[in-house]
Amino acid sequence: MTISWFDSSIVIAYLLILFVFALFGLRRKNGSQENLILAGRRLTLPAFVATLVSTWYGGILGVGEFSYLYGISNWLVFGVPYYLAALIFALFLAKRARRSMEMTIPDRLAKNYGPAASAAGSAVLIIVTLPVAYVLMIGVLLNQFFALPIWIGIIAGTAFSVFYVMTGGFKAVLWTDIFQFILMFAGFIILFIVAFTTFGGLEYLKANIPETHLSASGGNPVGYIALWYIIALATLVEPAFYQRCFAAKSEKVARRGIFVSIGFWIFFDFLTTTCGLYARAILPNLDNPVAAYPALAMEILPVGLLGIFLLSLLATIMSTVDSYMFLAATTISHDLIWRFKKFDEYKIGRYTALGLLISSIGTVGIALLSDSVVDLWHDFGSVGTPALLLPLLTSYWGKYKYSNKGALLSIILSSTLTALALFYPTLSGTSGYLFGIEPIFIGLGISLVILLATITEKQSQLIDK
User: Fold this and answer.
1) CA end-to-end span of the chain, whole Å?
2) Could you tell me the residue range of the domain that residue 344 belongs to?
3) Which whole-number Å values give the CA distances from 40 to 24, 29, 31, 244, in the listed order?
4) Secondary structure (H, E, C), the chain
5) Of 149, 266, 324, 446, whose CB has the highest number of CB atoms within 10 Å?
6) How far is 200 from 56, CA to CA, in rounded Å?
7) What's the whole-model pTM score?
8) Is residue 449 part of a domain?
């Protein structure tokens, strides 16, 4: 795929605007850790919604691939379970998180389980927040439209995101997310309207796509769909959610912001799923379904609108890259270096820059070795959720908590054994997981057993007394 000079100039203009944002960031002084990491806890409802909606929806090419292959099942697999998880977060965690006045998830772990558990949790968070899948998508996108080698696209996308985040901290992330929020909706609204007015609505789709594409399962087994409802529990330990709640102006903003965001995600999923159906109907023989959205846009959008849609794809991905790169960097600077070194907090910018360098190298390295976005989502979610879910939830509500040693053991064992289970097919040369069990269930089981053992130990101690 190649695009016209006019469409290319629209993309270049977008990148220049982000560059200007970065230059303004150089003039700002973020000062304290609270200002750098949470923008001074002054996040209003519109800003909260814009940054959360855009950050949490970065996997746009994976969504295009799935909706092209399986139709409206995309909504059931990548939509509904995450709406439910976000709703649980809003109802039970958002206000508690804001009320705690903490800055990061490891702060919470340190307060409840001590520095060792916090350090272990930080290590897990660094791994799962590396935006590997998203820089891989940038590489694929730049390859499709500009014929750049994927590895160059990966490095360029990472370097650009790191640059403007490094200059402005969370404030830079907020400003760019608001801009990218507008672009992501504008592009898909344009694509949907052009497809609908050119080819027709539901009757056209029914006549030109497989029947299974309009079924809830899309032809997938029930067990596969159910698995994603477990993986969606990663939302309850999602650092982007906690960071936005910590940064919210009030507890009400934190909770209402998630409710409003769910509405925007539902609408955006309608746009993306429907456009995926149009891609399947209009281009039924795509060699690479990952290119479903770009291919559809090239087929039906005129010059100018094509450039805007390309921006929509790029903005959707980059809004996630910058947010997660910043989260990984502040986990290194605040939760590892500062927690144990206790440097002057006004030097946080220097150490966050170091964190950005480390996280960007790790992100690029893993992305260059990867080829599947959906597999990356599956594997990273499978490791992070068992390690952090129960320790974090029991720290906010619940009658029973881990002991300090129990929390440390749970985080280390559940993440390590889950990772080993994920690598089992490669290490053993087989095609399936050990005993046919999804690795995430192994990790969750270990974490639950350690929690129950901790509770039993506490009860035993009370009886002895």
Assistant:
1) 74
2) 5-371
3) 18, 12, 10, 11
4) CCCCHHHHHHHHHHHHHHHHHHHHHHHCCCCCHHHHHHHHHCECHHHHHHHHHHHCCCCHHHHHHHHHHHCCHHHHHHCHHHHHHHHHHHHHCHHHHHHHCCCCHHHHHHHHHCHHHHHHHHHHHHHHHCCHHHHHHHHHHHHHHHCCCHHHHHHHHHHHHHHHHHHHHHHHHHHHHHHHHHHHHHHHHHHHHHHHHHHCCHHHHHHHCCHHHHCCCCCCCHHHHHHHHHHHHHHHHCHHHHHHHHHECCHHHHHHHHHHHHHHHHHHHHHHHHHHHHHHHHCCCCCCHHHHHHHHHHHHCCCCHHHHHHHHHHHHHHHHHHHHHHHHHHHHHHHHHHHHHCCCHHHHHHHHHHHHHHHHHHHHHHHHCCCCHHHHHHHHHHHHHHHHHHHHHHHHCCCCCCCHHHHHHHHHHHHHHHHHHHHHHHHHCCCCCHHHCCHHHHHHHHHHHHHHHHHHHHHHHHHHC
5) 324
6) 31
7) 0.92
8) no
Give, for all 465 residues of the chain, the pLDDT tens digit: 568 889 989 888 888 887 777 776 655 665 688 888 998 899 999 999 999 999 988 788 888 988 999 999 988 888 999 999 999 999 999 999 999 999 999 999 999 999 999 999 999 999 889 888 888 888 888 887 788 898 999 998 888 888 878 777 888 888 889 989 999 999 999 999 999 999 999 999 999 999 999 998 888 888 878 888 888 888 999 999 999 999 999 999 999 999 999 999 999 999 999 999 999 999 999 988 888 999 999 999 999 999 999 999 999 999 899 999 999 999 999 999 998 887 787 788 889 999 999 999 999 998 888 766 667 767 777 888 899 999 999 999 867 789 999 999 999 999 999 999 988 888 888 878 888 888 889 999 999 999 999 876 655 554 555
CB distance 102 to 108 below 8 Å: yes
φ and ψ at residue 355, rounded to 5 degrees:
-60, -40
Which residue, chain included where needed, has tokens 């992330």? 173
With a CB cutoff of 8 Å and minimum separation 6, the contacts of 232 are 81, 82, 84, 85
Rounded distance between C-alpha atoms, residue 348 and residue 331, angstroms: 11
Domain membership of residue 439 (yes or no) is no
Is residue 284, in this structure, part of any structural domain at all?
yes
Q: How many domains does the chain have?
A: 1
Helical packing angle, 115-129 and 348-368, nearest 10° = 50
> What is the domain-level CATH number for residue 217?
1.20.1730.10
Q: Are 119 and 349 in contact, with CB atoms under 8 Å apart? A: no
CA distance 444 to 234: 12
